[in-house]
Amino acid sequence: MAQRAALVTGASSGIGLAIARMLGAEGYGLTIAARRPEKLEEAAASLRDEGFELQAIPGNLSDEEHIQSVVAAHREKYGRLDVLVNNAGVGAGQPVGEITAKRLDLQLDLNLRSLVLFYRESVGMLREAGAEHRNAIVVNTASISGKSGEAWLSVYSATKHGVVGFTEAMNKELAGDGIKSCALCPGFVDTPMTDFVKGAVPADQMIRPEDIAEGVRMLLRVSPGCVIPEIIFQQPGGGLTGQPAG
């Protein structure tokens, strides 16, 4: 049984899978969660082939009962939670006069509401880990669009601004419990989420998912007295930013 454990949402590909792989290599027992069973199982198989201990739980990560079941299954398997990675998210661009309620609700529910509910359900285990080693970590995938609002991506930008703001609030609220939160704010990342723009922006000019994972690895290394509230990842010179990355 692993001495420490992590729960990663949106872990079937891209940033979430890269972070899960890094945490597995660091010796963490893993619970990985994502919406599509076939993609999640493919990711789980690749991680198991590398020798990592894990369980994979597919399902709707914007559903409150499913969120509760994911955290309960993690608790049942590992009995502890040292790192929570709220990575699941979706981006849907529309001009403001054409925003549909369905796409609005989808982004609000998965990008922001889900994150809050995962905190609520996980905070007990995080407090136990924080009491033990003062370095329980919550990683929240935001976006460079969470630092500067983007036209056409207004709802996405708003949800990612919300992620940054909630992360700041959690650092104030949970500091005494040894729980540290960090918002990841990347620009273009070479993931399936950016496939539609790769005709204009070559994948080899994008940030790599492994770059994001290395940023998270740093969070594991710093002392309990050091909080890194956010990390901004961008292309040299600033690069192009008007694109969902989380």
Automatic annotation (TrEMBL):
InterPro entries in the record: NAD(P)-bd_dom_sf, SDR, SDR_fam
Segments crossing the lipid bilayer: none
Coiled coil: none
Pfam families, A to Z: adh_short (PF00106)
Sequence similarity: Belongs to the short-chain dehydrogenases/reductases (SDR) family.
PANTHER family: 3-OXOACYL-(ACYL-CARRIER-PROTEIN) REDUCTASE, 3-OXOACYL-[ACYL-CARRIER-PROTEIN] REDUCTASE FABG
Record's protein name: SDR family oxidoreductase
